[in-house]
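Quick start: what a row looks like.
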Amino acid sequence: MNLTMKFNLVLIPVLLVSGVLATYFSFDILEKNAEKEIIDRAEIMMESALAMRSYTVSEIRPLLALQMKREFRPQSVPAYGATQIFETLRATHPEYTYKEATLNPTNPRNRAVDWETDVVNEFVKDPGKMEIFGQRDTPGGRSLYYAKPIAIKKEGCLACHSTVDRAPESMLKLYGEANGFGWKLNEVVGAQIISVPMSVPIAHARQALERFVIVLGVVFVAVLVIVNLMLRLIVTGPVKRMAGLADDISKGGTDTPEFAESGKDEISILGSSFNRMRRSLDRAMKMLEE
């Protein structure tokens, strides 16, 4: 077995083990980065929903005030505007879902389910908490969610939700008088919740990992090729030439040229020692012939 083969038998397992370890630890990092990317995108979507809520209250609701007396317009409700704009966003990001989960909603579709109620109650217990990140189990697998509290910060919101007698007649005809009342200023009544399956960041992480493994494989192959070329040029090539010269000399070749030495590395030092030995051998042979 030659020197190059022995060297590769050591180098290749080292590269393989390094690659496996790098892949193992990289997946966890990539998954966390993908999860952060998903959360960052959810935050932007949440800000868009908040902006739509504010726009609805300040711009849309006043324009519909007269029509609301004759017929209730859901476009005047901040939750409706935020939900609709999110549905538009879902055309390009279908993996995200949005809900304005409310403990006592006017519209039944906004009623909080069990786990959403727990999220809302966390905001109720700690009014200073501005956001919650978490994971939960669903029939479709683990899900990541991001939530912000819905608190009554403007008097205009109480026009429909304080008492039945203040609510528009058109709204009462549509939703009735049983739910959506008794809200108070600065009270947390619900939570905006954006959910996305954990399979999404995991899939993103796996895609990034596949690219990483491909690049890592190319780098390892390049390293293996370059190291073998350098080994041949710097070590095995000169050693083979030196071995060939030594073989010729051992067979009586008196006109064998000296080993071409250059530099100050170990091979050059060995070559210099070889040439000195060859010259000493030539002198000894001449002395014997005389």
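That is the whole record. The two ends are 44 Å apart (CA to CA). The first strand starts at residue 97 and ends at 102.
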